Amino acid sequence: MLPNLLGLTDLRKVELSEAEGFLRAEIMLYDDLEDATSFDLDYLLQMHGLALGHLYAFAGKLRTVNLSKGGFNFPSAKFLDETMRNFDQLMLRPLPETYLDKDELIRDIALVHGELLFIHPFREGNGRTARLLADMMAQKQGHGKLRWEQVGRVNFDAYINAVQQAALDNRAPMEAIIRSVFPV
Questions:
Q1: Which of 13, 34, 160, 181 would give a disulfide with 147, using CB separation of 3.0 to 4.6 Å?
Q2: Domains and CATH numbers, the chain
Q3: Helix/strand/coil (H/E/C) assignment for every residue in 12-24
Q4: Whole-number Å distance between alpha carbons of 47 and 154
Q5: Over the stretch 62-99, which tens digit does the pLDDT of each residue have?
Q6: Are 29 and 132 in contact (CB under 8 A)?
């Protein structure tokens, strides 16, 4: 368990505090969502800070430690500033303000989601931040939140595989997952 600003030592209480933080952030971000909202690096850092700033001093900041999960090493922390600047310039800033085609929106959500999960820019809360960003991207275009609960335990291995495939520039698996959870 990571040290936290509230001094919590019970894992369930930490998880509850994190979940409440993401819920508050979602409400605030949705209330502030407008046609001119830009999903750039500053927005991403703000999103993470809103969600976890009550709990962690590192919230809203890029990680400074190396991370691995299940034998997979995420990009090194020492290259993270440059990696995220590239992500911002090449993937986030070119996103159109308005999508005329739902398929194009789904492709862009899949692209951003897969890349963000591969980079894992934060010490904690990467998946939830990536899902919240995907939800905001869909909602900005007048769609509802994505139905992430459909990924569930049954399809979680396919979801992890899609993240790994996105890192290899094979975006089809992530696009299929985003399409399957996209609101109808």
A1: 181
A2: 11-181 (1.10.3290.10)
A3: HHHHHHHHHHHHH
A4: 29
A5: 999 999 988 888 999 999 999 999 999 999 999 999 99
A6: yes
